[in-house]
Amino acid sequence: MLKRVILSNQNMYALITGASKGIGKEIAMELAKKKYDLILIARSASQLEEAAKEIRSKYAVKVDFLATDLSAPDVARGVFKWVEQNNYQVSILVNNAGYGLAGDFENYTLEQNRAMMNLNMITVSEMCQVFLPMLKRHSQAYILNIASSTAYQALPQMAIYAATKIFVLNFSRALKFELKNSSVSVTCVSPGATDTNFNDRAAIPAKARKAAEKVVMSPQDVAKISIDAMFAGKTEVIAGFVNKLGAFLAWIAPKAITEKVAAGIYE
Ligand SMILES: NC(=O)c1ccc[n+]([C@@H]2O[C@H](COP(=O)([O-])OP(=O)(O)OC[C@H]3O[C@@H](n4cnc5c(N)ncnc54)[C@H](OP(=O)(O)O)[C@@H]3O)[C@@H](O)[C@H]2O)c1
Predict the structure, then answer these.
(1) Residue 254 sits in which domain range?
(2) Residue 100's domain is classified under what CATH number?
(3) What digits encode the pLDDT tens for the residues 24-70?
(4) Domain count, the chain
(5) CA 47 / ligand 1 centre spacing (Å)
(6) Could you identify which of 40, 116, 145, 176 might form a hypothetical disulfide with 186, taking C-beta atoms 3.0 to 4.6 angstroms apart as the criterion?
(7) CA angle 112, 116, 117 (to 5 degrees)
(8) Top mutation candidate among 15, 16, 21 for ligand 1, by most atoms within 8 Å of CB
């Protein structure tokens, strides 16, 4: 029988993946404002160290970090072991790390496509699985999974990326249902175009960047929406009015049309 423990925020850690920059770093800032201690994860140790220093000095919370590649096989188990060894109690798990690859999917190697799928899907589900027993020990705990507005339609030129994000969305919804009688709330937030390093890593073409210019959101706004949604216990949130409208239009329009329009932006 698992025991539930009630602790102050000061002893509760929020673990955020992809927290060295972009949306993840801003999510970390939002949680630090609420006095959560933090565990930041990404690959670059130097960027994590910088982010940790900045957050500690601004918010006087404890911040530790782990530099690891979350696209590696079986990495979630290793992260959990490290957390246990440090005696950290995680009550918030934020699966934010992820990236896309623009262009024809066949132009990437098997390894490149697999690494993206590992990070965006496999590690997200495995992090939830390995951390669930710890999360359930708290009287209230949260999982926040970051999907994307691309989860709402098939996206030629980002075929695998968009498919990984519908995985995140549907997995999160089902997990929330399965956990309805537990202390763990699951929220999935889907940002649209956000001003981060995402476009560079995905090699998004200039035409698509230009199309997004007028609707791009700041990572700060996306993080605030995400954290508010998580604490409100929401199941599924699309960040920003324009992205909500886009998802609605994609839902009512014939699929062949939404796919042609989307492909036109990227090609
Ligand atoms: N920006 C957008 O337009 C947009 C739109 C919709 C959804 N999203 C989603 O939002 C989430 C955050 O993206 P972002 O826009 O903030 O991108 P970003 O600025 O590129 O940040 C990505 C973060 O994830 C980390 N990361 C990347 N690959 C990793 C790996 N293999 N292992 C561990 N950490 C890794 C990065 O650090 P390292 O490089 O040091 O590892 C960084 O901290 C992603 O899931 C993305 O799909 C973004």
Answers:
(1) 9-266
(2) 3.40.50.720
(3) 999 999 999 999 999 999 999 999 999 999 999 999 999 999 999 99
(4) 1
(5) 13
(6) 176
(7) 115
(8) 21
